[in-house]
Amino acid sequence: MDLNLKGKVAIITGASRGIGRAIAQKLSKEGMRLVLAARSAESLQEVAATCTSEVQTFPTDLRFETSPRQLIDFTLQRFGDIDLLVNNAGATKRGDFLHLTEEDWRDGFALKFFSTVRCSRAAWPHLVQSKGAIVNVVGVGGRTGSADFAIGGSVNAAILNLTKVLADRGMTDGVKVNAINPGYIVTDRLKSRIDLLSHANNISKDEAASKITLDLGIPRFGQPSEIATAVAFLASSASSYCQGAILDVDGGQTRTL
User: CB 28: neighbour CB atoms within 10 A?
Assistant: First the structure.
């Protein structure tokens, strides 16, 4: 299926590895011109080398208030337009609520939530002009609370609400805004969790992985490419009637309405 993305311009935050890397590769295959943002310049260059379309990299720490505006300005200088913003940056610290510090909370909101707010705000006028789209990559923790994911769940819930807010505004301005909730996807973060469980319980990594899927009630972990495919769909004309949609790509983990 032709997704009508060829030649359009996309910004992807958190693009240096995992889901962000897969999104970059997928959108590049669709012929989009890309600006990839993350903290590691070296990692961004490695991702860019795997892409087949024109790619620019913008190493930055999106926790800083001025960085999102600089990212948008950089994109306009290089490509003159913005058709898609993929807000994917941000990891939050897990842990017991009573042991999480003020700094842990500030850091969690600074990168994932406030970078989404600031990138969306800076890109909005240009997305209005191009009749473009925003896809927020969030997480199932925003829909189902978990004792060891207090910060992440709170941040994700806030971004899901923000998605609805921007989608409401987007109906007037002609900007399509939707979100994806990945479940347990095979990334470095998941591999670290499997390693920790393996060591803590003196079991093999395969046994630890099986325990996690069994506890979650899912048949398997997801692949980053599966999230990337969902992003491409929501970015494309094939999803023209999706506005404010929240797509759970989690293997059935989320069972609530």
Answer: 22
- Give Cβ neighbours of residue 87 (< 8 Å, ≥ 6 apart): 13, 115, 116, 119, 120, 134, 135, 136, 137, 159
Q: What is the per-residue pLDDT for 104?
A: 95
Task: Tell me what pLDDT residue 1 has.
Answer: 75
Beta bridge pairs of residue 84: 10, 133
Residue 241 CA to residue 94 CA, distance in Å, equals: 36
Write down the H helix ranges in 102-187.
102-108, 114-130, 150-173
This model's pTM is above 0.90 = yes
- Alpha carbon of 110 to those of 14, 78, 146, 225: distances in Å? 14, 27, 21, 27
Kind of pairing between the strands at 9-13 and 84-87: parallel
Task: Output the pLDDT for position 257.
Answer: 85
Q: How far apart are CA 203 and CA 63, in angstroms?
A: 38
Q: Which residues contact 108 (CB under 8 A, 6 or more apart)?
A: 90, 92, 93, 151, 152, 154, 155
Question: What value does the mean pLDDT take over residues 184-193?
Answer: 94
